[in-house]
Specification:
Helices cover 36% and strands 21% of the residues. The chain is of the alpha+beta class. The strands form 4 sheets. It has a 6-stranded mixed beta sheet, sandwiched between helices. Strands 7-11-8-10-9 form a 5-stranded mixed beta sheet, with helices on both faces. A 5-stranded antiparallel beta sheet has the order 12-16-15-14-13, with helices on one face. It has 15 helices and 19 strands. A hairpin with a 6-residue loop joins strand 17 (433-438) and strand 18.
Length: 497
């Protein structure tokens, strides 16, 4: 692998192929948005791709939680033209296509729901950073041209980009991106936690999330690999409860790594899988792995690095780290670190991570948790009782006829509280409001809290006075940028595109 620079952008190259595969990577993703601007990075990506002429070149783009990449495979000159075209488009987005591309994004998101990993991140961070992936947000139709152009001008710049190229580097390649440094990324603040917790989510599957302030800790990586193997053996091969056991690593900063282990489950067997996952983790924390389990994990990494696509993977890793500002470790360095890991080091690493553990199960599972010493933490902001303040309720006749209407809304100086029909009380402090989104008919408003609570206030349910009280209180306590207007593009316009 060689490193060069083109127009101020770091470029990582390797030969060994006749055709060229290349990707231009930017250190920006959904974690860099807010609830009000969810999908703005994805919309920038779509607009840039839409600016290119039609081609038979194999090319595409992807927006992830923490990066965005434009990639192509083909003849070097065609790949070079694609990359240069993307750079020019990002410098001057065709925002006249925003309505059409917002419609495409809506279609692309149809039928998708929250993933288990997203639910884990949201359980840790709420609607901030990677936790934003749990939500679809207000929708791309709420984004205006000023917001989109400002986002592109801040993030899609030379200082926040890197290129990797496997195969011949296109001759005379230019990367005319706008000048600019890498923006400072916000590291989200996790919810306070002094020991392992569990929670229910509306996502399928069972998940375990661990955090570490030492991303280079090979012992934890080996420990998670051993955990996966144990769960796979017990949940799939021994009992037929599960098909897949996967893991995902997310480095939020040089000193903050989140490691998720996700296990699917047969219908109605989520509780058994959750019990098995937690028991396997707790046992490893208590007794550690066997030497042969550590050796098996190392052998698995050796086989992975011996794959014919390993060189391309290392190029992609190098470019990703350069784009997002993280330290890069070569495959050889990683393998050497894994080979030096001992069972005792794995045990110590897992014990250090245990207090950060978050275990999630679907809210349809009948389960009381893994252990009395592991408390359940509600996913959203739950209050013990309704606070003092102005109270609003549906009319008496509705409450008598419809149990779902037996709700209470409280508007106070501190925030908004809502008792649902099940008797649970949810609170949203004004300081924790992420957005106020108009309802589709424009008559009401949905108040969305950073702690995953959301309350829809509508005249048909709470009366006009309730809506007026919420808007009056929010106007004086919530930043104007969080008070969203009606969609920029009306639904009828989107449907006509």
């Amino acid at each position: 692998m060689q490193r060069t620079q083109i127009d101020g952008v770091p470029v990582f190259t390797a030969g060994g192929r006749q055709r060229t595969t290349a990707a231009l990577v930017f250190g920006v993703g959904l974690r860099d948005e807010t609830f009000a601007t969810i999908e703005v990075t994805h919309l920038v990506e779509h607009l840039a791709m839409a600016a290119l002429p039609r081609t038979h070149l194999r090319c595409n783009a992807v927006t992830d939680v923490d990066s965005t990449a434009f990639f192509a495979t083909g003849r070097p000159e065609a790949v070079g033209a694609f990359l240069e075209g993307i750079c020019r488009a990002l410098a001057d987005l065709p925002t006249g296509r925003m309505t059409a591309e917002a419609g495409v994004l809506q279609a692309e998101g149809c039928g998708t729901g929250s993933s288990t990993v997203s639910a884990l991140w949201a359980a840790r961070y709420g609607l901030a950073g990677p936790g934003l992936t749990v939500s679809a947000g207000p929708g791309p139709e709420h984004l205006d041209e000023e917001t989109v152009r400002a986002h592109a001008a801040r993030w899609f710049v030379r200082g926040n980009a890197a290129l990797w190229c496997h195969g011949p580097l296109p001759s005379g390649l230019r990367l005319p991106l706008p000048a600019g440094p890498r923006p400072a990324r916000r590291t989200p603040v996790p919810r306070p936690q002094d020991g392992p917790v569990w929670t229910r989510t509306d996502a399928p599957g069972v998940g375990l999330l661990l955090a570490t302030d030492s991303p280079a800790d090979a012992a934890l990586a080996v420990g998670v690999d051993v955990l996966q193997e144990r769960v796979r053996e017990r949940a799939r091969h021994a009992s037929g409860l599960s098909y897949a056991v996967d893991s995902l690593i997310l480095d939020l900063a040089a000193d903050r790594r989140e490691v998720a282990v996700v296990v699917d489950a047969r219908t109605g067997r989520d509780a058994e899988v959750a019990e098995l996952l937690w028991a396997s983790f707790a046992q490893l924390c208590a007794d550690g792995p066997a030497p042969e389990e550590v050796a098996h994990a190392v052998a698995g990494l050796e086989a992975e690095l011996d794959d014919e696509d390993a060189a391309g993977t290392e190029l992609a890793d190098a470019a990703y780290c350069a784009a997002v500002g993280l330290p890069f470790r070569t495959a050889a360095e990683t393998l050497a670190a894994w080979r030096a890991v001992t069972p005792a080091a794995v045990t110590a690493a897992l014990r250090r991570a245990e207090p950060t553990a978050v275990l999630t199960v679907p809210d349809t599972a009948t389960w009381d948790g893994p252990d009395p010493r592991v408390p359940r933490r509600p996913l959203c902001g739950v209050l013990p009782a309704l606070p003092e303040g102005a109270r609003f309720r549906p009319p008496l006749h509705r409450r008598l006829l419809d149990p779902a209407a037996r709700v209470v809304l409280v508007v106070s100086e501190e925030g908004l509280a809502h008792r649902d029909a099940d008797g649970d009380v949810h609170g949203i402090p004004w300081s924790r409001v992420e957005a106020l989104v108009p309802t589709e008919d424009g008559a009401g408003v949905s108040v969305v809290g950073r702690d995953l609570c959301a309350v829809t206030v509508h005249p048909a349910r709470h009366g006009r006075r309730a809506v007026a009280a919420v808007l009056a209180a929010a106007t004086s306590r919530v930043p104007p940028s969080l008070l969203l207007g009606r969609p920029v593009a009306a639904a009828a316009e989107l449907a006509a595109v």
